[in-house]
Amino acid sequence: MSSLEYEYIIVGGGTAGCVLASRLSHAGHRVAVFEAGPENYADQIMSPTGGPLLHATEWEYQWKSVKQAHLGNRELANYGGKILSGSSAINYGLWARGHSVDFDQWARLVGDERWSYSNLLNYFKKSETFHDRGAAASVDQHGYEGPISNFSGLRKYPLKEKTLEAVKQSGIEHNLDGNDGNPLGVAPFTDNVKNALRQPAGLAYDLSKADVFTNAIVARIDIDQQSKSATGITLDDNRSFKAKEVLVCAGAIKTPQLLMLSGIGPKEHLESIGITSVVDLPVGQNFHDHISGSMFWKLRNPDQGLAMGSPNFNDPSFRTGMPFDWIVTIALPDEVLSPAAIADGTSLSAAYGSGPRGHVEILMPYAPIASAGTPYRIPPDGTHVATPVVILLPTSRGSITLASTNVTDDPILDPNYLATEIDRTIMREGFRAAIRIMETPAALTYVEHETPPPGYPRLTSSCTDEEIDARLAHVGASMFQNAGTASMGTVVDADCKVKGVNGLRVCDASIIPVSIASHYQAAIYGIAEAIADIIQGKNN
Ligand SMILES: Cc1cc2nc3c(=O)[nH]c(=O)nc-3n(C[C@H](O)[C@H](O)[C@H](O)COP(=O)(O)OP(=O)(O)OC[C@H]3O[C@@H](n4cnc5c(N)ncnc54)[C@H](O)[C@@H]3O)c2cc1C
């Protein structure tokens, strides 16, 4: 140990990287973090509603996918934080833990109960301070002393009750607490905004005991070819640092790029661009992300101040978070998905196991919100609300491959969205469920009709599959839940150790082998807490 500068080098001071840096350094370990972006907590970043405005800034990677055959052959935008705290510093603040059965599927897949929901629960609790004690259905499912505060119901939007009524009238049940391991139904929208400010991971988790290097781009992991051991890292300015163990936390797009640049990945692909192979592993494969598509709904009486942009939508509390009260998570019936599974040459039980799963989500914003990168937008002028539909459990899998040997070049992103009939069916059913909500008597008291993009027909409950497919091909956009590119089971083992290389782990969204019915930050905080214990031998 004494000849090594650090015990742990963390590559990427993002969401998971900051958790690990904090926990390991506070436990007395000598830790260095290398983060490609700057440290910055400017107002623009700390604003709880600022996420959508950060896309064209220096604090984000601005990736583009290759043309997506099932989405109108468009190249889709994708983003990630390039700043200390990573994507937690630029995301939209929604706090959604996911479904217990998703984690159980993960545990089964890798044959290790530590990744089951019941074992991760302690770590979800450890990461959060839950502020709805008493109001929530399941007090024992939450933590009350963790670094990340989360809240729901702080803002009183005028359409809160009518929206809930509309969702219930469409046949969806009210779920008092969607963050207790079962998100199904219509649940309160929860965000991790505290005192009207964002909580970036690097502020919420104390980094004062770690050496933090910002604007420090790691160009490769140094690996001793003889012993197949990681010995440290080299930056793109050629400075090198040594460590007992390297923990790669560069996120699901940049982690596979860095592994491949270091000789860890598909041998044939690496050799085709002149990289000497260290170990042949399916790095970059199993890439999954959540695709979304929004519909915009014209309000009957916009002058009543029902949506963002109206001069009468002016309660000061509305500036303290995104304009939502509710989030809807739907399990589709077997009889709807089975034919699609057969068409894909699989079975529903192979894809999802048994029991209800959260296949699709409908967000209910009081603004014409659509994910960044969609070509169709309506200005937030108070005239429209929206229903973004998000696939949560896609079965399509894509890949990240190298475009060059330069770490600052973007890798090639092919998320392969909607490549399976299951996924296309889920999105069609999600659109239909959103339309059903907006056609209920409760919704029709405040909404007139859908406002389609120019040249497209209005979507109603009598629309055809082809009309929904055509719409999605036009408006589909990533929700930025990139994951799976250094999957547990294939690239890393259940301790997150890279197979065939000593002293190297991957600890970020890349390791998630299966899709999770959530947006990933809450899961990643919990997973990173679990990994911190695994590294210290406390969770074995
Ligand atoms: C625009 C957007 C909105 C989102 N909204 C939500 C939301 O509302 N709710 C939710 O739950 N989730 C949301 N997410 C997803 C969630 O934020 C991410 O899944 C999660 O934060 C990823 O954590 P991570 O630790 O895997 O990676 P990140 O937090 O992205 O961290 C990776 C870090 O590694 C650094 N890095 C990369 N390469 C190198 C290198 N070579 N050298 C040094 N450093 C490097 C990066 O700069 C970055 O800081 C959103 C994501 C995006 C992009």
Automatic annotation (TrEMBL):
Keywords: FAD, Flavoprotein. Pfam families: GMC_oxred_C, GMC_oxred_N. SUPFAM superfamilies: FAD-linked reductases, C-terminal domain, FAD/NAD(P)-binding domain. One of its GO terms (molecular function) is oxidoreductase activity, acting on CH-OH group of donors. Residues 251-265 form the Glucose-methanol-choline oxidoreductase N-terminal domain. Its cofactor is FAD. Transmembrane segments: none annotated. FAD binds at residue 218. Belongs to the GMC oxidoreductase family. This is GMC oxidoreductase.
